[in-house]
Amino acid sequence: MIQSSELILNPDGSVYHLNLKPEHIAHNIIFVGDQNRVEKITQFFDSIEFSTQKREFKTQTGLFKGKRITVLSTGIGPDNIDIVMNELDALVNIDLVTRKPKETLTSLNIIRIGTSGSLQADIPVDSFVMSTFGLGLDNMLRSYVIDEISNSEIEDAFIKHTNWDLRKGKPYAISGSKKLEKMIESDTIHKGVTATAGGFYGPQGRILRLNIQDENLNSKMDNFNYSGNRITNFEMETAAIYGLSKLLGHHALSMNAIIANRANGTFSEDPYKAVDELIVYVLDKIASE
Known about the structure:
With 289 residues, the chain is α/β, with parallel strands linked by helices. 25% of the residues lie in helices and 29% in strands.
């Protein structure tokens, strides 16, 4: 039995941070970072059956073209993903009354819809990027046993190419769901490796008043290429989602609307339009399954 200090429940029996019970979530789940983006997705729903919010974790579940879908805001960063993924898995794969894992496990479909900046000059603003791999620079997933799910060849190539300082922790590379990739892909969608940082400023090479450990990291990442896998964009969630999903037996895919191109210094003239187009595209793909 899982102790109450390890799996914390609210007085109403819901999981502690997300404030959710098993009946509140669908099999198909869309992650967003920003809580205000939840309703930017559910505005397209035919109906909403459930809505709740605790802290930055806002959840709405409803129907889109007859398909039941949950939209959940994770907040920013790998630490939040650790909370969200473990509590979502508990909702479907742990009996919250007996506190024991279920004998028959459920696999969720999780698609992240986010915004990101491109590191490649040929991936323009307003385009879509599908993450074939998440490259974690954040070190969160190293708290788990990941050797069997990580791609050591990409990791070693990245470490060598960037002369990575291992005092910051060893990067990890995790692939996305091939099943969801086939469901979502099209000829117009760019594919590549999405790097996941543990912070927004120094960890992503931004310099304000503090010096950073490697001022040239972004340029090294720009020209990294291992067997055709190049780093397309930089954000703060994808690798953590991929890693925990794979460990827990769920399918996960990250989709980003590119609103900035850091290689040529451009920014989308209408980033909201780009995000809305990605939302509708993903919803239609989910509904058609």
